[in-house]
Amino acid sequence: MADRTAGEAQSCIPTRQSEGLTIVDRRTIVRREGRTIWVNRLQGDCPGLRPLNTLIVEAHGSQYCRGDLVRGLDPGTTIPGAACPLQDWVPYRANPG
Q1: What is the longest distance spanned by two Cα atoms in the chain?
Q2: Domains of the chain: which residue ranges?
Q3: Structure pTM?
Q4: SS3 of 43, please?
Q5: Could you give the residue ranges of the DSSP H alpha helices within the chain?
Q6: How far is it, in rounded angstroms, from Cα 57 to Cα 64?
Q7: Do residues 32 and 16 lie in contact, with contact meaning Cβ atoms separated by under 8 Å?
């Protein structure tokens, strides 16, 4: 993120089929959108979130919003981990140059 500048936090971002969410670690989820990376830092560790897990999002409507629940699903299992609420989304935009 060293070559990016943080923008103003947003409570919601639109969902897009072609631009999915990615688990970075137990408390960080990102979505890449062109030159912008949207980062959601959860309030604390979410036990089921690991980089290779499938991310399950319980979104209400056509946006991913603060308070929507996320869960991780370990490969080869059918029962997802604990649900954790999303926080605000912070955009990090590539610096020109």
Answers
A1: 46
A2: 4-94
A3: 0.90
A4: coil
A5: none
A6: 8
A7: no
Q: For 56, what's the count of Cα atoms within 13 Å in the CB-facing half-sphere? A: 13
Q: CA 84, CA 24: separation in Å to the nearest integer?
A: 15
Q: How far is residue 6's CA from residue 23's CA, in Å, rounded to a whole number?
A: 19
For the cut 80, the answer to whether the pLDDT of residue 18 exceeds it is: no
Q: Is 45 left (phi over 0), alpha (psi -120 to 50) or beta?
A: beta
Residue whose tokens read 């409507």: 61
Q: How far apart are CA 12 and CA 10, in angstroms?
A: 5
Contact 63, 15 (CB under 8 A): yes
End-to-end CA distance of the chain: 15
pLDDT band at 74 (very low <50, low <70, confident <90, very high): very high
Structure tokens at 83: 């649900």
The 10 Å Cβ neighbour count of residue 61 is: 10
